[in-house]
Specification:
The chain contains six helices and 14 strands. With 237 residues, it is α+β, with helices and mostly antiparallel strands. The longest helix is centred in the middle third of the chain and has 23 residues. The model has no long low-confidence stretch (mean pLDDT 98). The structure holds thymidine-5'-phosphate and aspartic acid.
Length: 237
């Protein structure tokens, strides 16, 4: 199924798909990292959980007309996607204030953003993924102003779809990070993954954190909470 390794990131490996030009195999790893790779641990089963979760979420987005790179889940830890050129922007959408925005701007924890807030970060490990504005983004990535507007509008649309999906399983989608890529035909589509690595997910009843913050903050069992997310998603998808 897979050919040459093209790229290895902190949480996934990217392979060329065998005999399928223009397609890639994403292989989800068991590694978790935080604070730009400073904290690192391996969790048996994490790759499977994130692959399965992302493979449920992306088709849900397709149903709502969102274009993505996702094609199909291949096995426990791998999925087939269209090859894209990743745009070096991390697009964060926030519904409630927590995480870096609290430290950066001194906002009160759980302040509601209505409408939801979008932020752009420059995807560059050496620089520590700094926060940037739209004009920086236009200078740092090969997107036009109208494409950037479309990316942000799509991110907010995805927020609507995912917020109601998670609400249906008694979870608040607090915030999340998206990445977009350019297809061979020039279209920009959602790429990367959507998983508890890239979202903050809080149980609506208990406020329990069901995402990577349990690892970042050392407050819970990563495999247990990711498993809980998968189980709840499987009950509605
Ligand atoms: P932040 O509050 O640390 O800026 O994180 C915002 C959201 O982005 C949160 O859901 C976690 C996610 N995120 C990533 O997916 N990758 C990252 O490298 C970081 C820093 C955050
Ligand atoms: N993924 C990032 C890293 O390893 C940070 C994070 O998700 O908090 O550094």
């Amino acid at each position: 199924m897979k050919d040459m390794l093209l790229y290895e990131g902190k949480a996934k490996q990217v392979y060329k798909a065998k005999n399928k030009p223009g397609q890639l195999v994403l292989s989800y790893k068991n590694d978790a990292t935080a604070f730009n790779g400073e904290k690192k641990e391996t969790f048996h089963g994490k790759g499977r959980l994130n692959n399965e979760i992302s493979s449920l979420v992306f088709p849900m987005l397709h149903k709502h007309g969102i274009q993505t790179h996702f094609m199909e889940r291949l096995n426990e830890t791998e999925q087939l996607v269209y090859q894209t050129e990743i745009i070096p922007l991390e697009v964060v959408v926030r519904n409630l204030a927590t995480g870096s925005i609290i430290k950066r701007l001194g906002m009160k924890e759980k302040t509601v953003f209505s409408p939801p807030l979008t932020e752009l970060f420059y995807k560059d490990d050496d620089l520590g993924d700094p926060l940037i504005n739209d004009e920086h983004a236009l200078n740092l990535s090969a997107v036009t102003l109208s494409e950037l507007k479309e990316i942000k509008a799509t991110a907010l649309e995805i927020n609507k779809v995912l917020s109601s999906l998670f609400e249906s399983i008694n979870i608040t989608l607090v915030d999340f990070k998206l990445e977009f890529g350019r297809m061979a035909d020039g279209r920009i589509v959602l790429a990367d993954e959507i998983s508890p690595d890239t979202c903050r997910l809080w149980d609506r009843t208990t406020q329990e954190k069901l995402d990577k913050d349990v690892f970042r903050q050392g407050t819970g069992e990563l495999i247990e909470v990711y498993g809980e997310i998968l189980q709840r998603l499987q009950s509605v998808t």
